[in-house]
Sequence to fold (220 residues):
Amino acid sequence: MAKLQLAIMAFASVVVANSARASFNLITDGDFSTPGQGVGGYTYAPTGSPWTFSPLIGGVSGSGITYIPSAFENTPLNIQAGFLQTAGGSVSSTDPASISQVFSAPAAGSYDLSFMYAGRTYDGGTTTFKVSVDGSSVFTVTPLSGQNFTPESLIVTLANGNHTLAFTSTAPVIGYDETAFIGNVSLTAVPEPTTIISAALMLLPFGASTLRILRRKQVA
Fold:
């Protein structure tokens, strides 16, 4: 009986966890794995990606995908990441580096936006960037020079339909070749508390009926 009760509890935990788990990631290629760069590789404004990148301007300002470690080495993680790179003069202020993607929210509600960011160590170091949805800034990030990938998460409210998520460099450029890295971007629906409670209540008849059967067997 104890084993069966544990099994019921385990099953209930899985069901409740599944109901509480946010829906699938609305962001495509959140880990910037496409197109593959190979060790040490990087590409400004690569094609074949669901992301839109700003073009290379002035030889050093723009965005793209890099494999870390690479020419933008921060820490030997052996992963691909998006990068925002700025340069001195009017290049950065006129044409800020940006990475964006259009996505569709299936329903109005709260969504969990999470990503990781890091700062480059050498040359101009790192750059500040903002996170925006439909052009409205929701968060600003200033990685430390040489900062390893750090997770960040925030809640955004969306209407159903298409939206644009963007990462855009914002800091006044004081040096040369300043770069920030972005990875593991995800946007998932936050379940309503009533959804979790309903899932738990649905399991009560199952558990109660099973226990009644067990009691009848013990009596017999």
Remarks:
- The two ends are 15 Å apart (CA to CA).
- Residues 40 and 71 are 6 Å apart (CA to CA).
- DSSP finds three helices and eleven strands in the chain.
